[in-house]
Design a protein that fits this description.
- By secondary structure, the chain is mainly alpha-helical.
- It is built from four helices and no strands.
- The chain has one domain.
- It comes from Pipistrellus nathusii (Nathusius' pipistrelle).
- This is RIIa domain-containing protein 1.
Length: about 90
C-alpha cells in the first residue's frame, strides 16, 4: 500500500483485482476439499498423527521439536502403522 500526503493509505498497486480474489477464493476452497478427501481416504495419516499426539501427551517432552523429529524418523514407525492398519481391518 502507498501512503498519501495526509497519512491515509492509498490503493496498493500490487493488490489483487476482484476477479483474481474470486479465483483465489475458489482455489482455496477446492484445495481444502481435495485435502479433506485425501485425509479421509488415507487412514495411515490419522494413525500417524493420533500416535504422535498420544505419545507426546504421555511422555510430555520438554523439546517437542526434537521429540517430533525422533518420533517421525523412527525406522520402526512404518511397521507400527502397518500393524495398526491390519488390526483395524480385522476389527471392522
Amino acid at each position: 500500500m502507498t501512503t498519501l500526503e495526509d497519512g491515509q493509505l492509498g490503493p496498493d498497486p500490487g493488490a489483487l483485482s476482484s476477479e483474481q480474489l474470486e479465483k483465489l477464493r475458489e482455489y482455496k476452497i477446492q484445495t481444502r476439499i481435495a485435502n479433506e478427501k485425501y485425509l479421509r481416504s488415507h487412514k495411515e495419516v490419522e494413525l500417524l498423527l493420533s500416535g504422535f499426539f498420544r505419545e507426546m501427551f504421555l511422555q510430555r517432552p520438554e523439546n517437542i521439536r526434537e521429540f517430533a523429529a525422533d518420533y517421525f524418523t523412527d525406522p520402526t514407525l512404518p511397521d507400527k502403522i502397518h500393524t495398526q492398519l491390519i488390526k483395524e481391518k480385522k476389527g471392522a
